Amino acid sequence: MIDLHTHTNKSDGTDSPRELVNKAIAQGLTVLGITDHDTTSGWEEAAQTLRGNLALALGSEISCLTEDGISVHMLGLLFDAKHAGIQEMLEETRDGRLPRMRKMIAKMQSAGIDISMDDVEAARPEGATLGRPHLADALVNKGIINSRDEAFQGMLNNESEFYVSHAAPTPAEAIAMIRRAGGVAVIAHPFASRRGVILQASDFQELVTAGLNGIEVDHRDQNPDEREMLRQIARELDLVITGSSDYHGSGKLNSLAEFHTDPSQWEKLESHADKRRVVRA
Ligand code: AMP
Ligand code: ZN
Ligand code: FE
Ligand code: FE
User: Fold this and answer.
1) Whose C-alpha in 20, 75, 112, 272 is 20 to 30 A from the C-alpha of 212?
2) Is it the case that residue 194 has pLDDT exceeding 90?
């Protein structure tokens, strides 16, 4: 089983990289992609934990914004973590997440919600890329809401009055950087309409021109119709089709490998990296 999109506590997942790799081994996965938001800081621990037949496709899920302000997530896999350009891009986005969180908290405080930056910092694992899920955890800790899921259905949704975006590259910029760093770019859950405004089918050609390699089709946030439309776009543009869990430990309902990628699609995707960078024990 091949699962190319998961998170650890280096961003908003709840398992450490070690715990996640151990779970993947226990479940008999053949390839595990670790794609923490805007960071590669979990790669080393994951690689050190590796044993047996599991292979690691290390990467990152890069938060992007289109010029129209639509939020897009770009999975970069198999790139060179030592590439200065991509590390700069990831760092800039991480830096932008702090003032963004302060703005969201200020909006909540103005609405009379008892939440502070200290509460959020207390909920964030050390060194983790700061995100709305940590704010959700802080709200849960204070008894204001019951779960992350409840937060994302209401006050932390992209359409909420409290939502603030952060500085981020455009999808085309992220794709170009991932490719320059030797990796492959797969657009994550592009038609996940329940999260907010999404791209249109006509937006994909430009991303292909920038170097896009694949589309995440099978994902729990995309309904069967949305998946079918994406499968069609992928066929037309000769893009790799992936499926993945977007596992976040106990932070989300998604279970590891609940959706997966066909081995022949993975083989095609891997062949587009500039070197064989899959990590094996
Ligand atoms: P941010 O990166 O701060 O904009 O927060 C977005 C993150 O929240 C995404 O990476 C999602 O994984 C996470 N998220 C979105 N919806 C939910 C949900 N219903 N439950 C838990 N986490 C979610
Ligand atoms: Zn996440
Ligand atoms: Fe995502
Ligand atoms: Fe994700």
Assistant:
1) 20
2) no
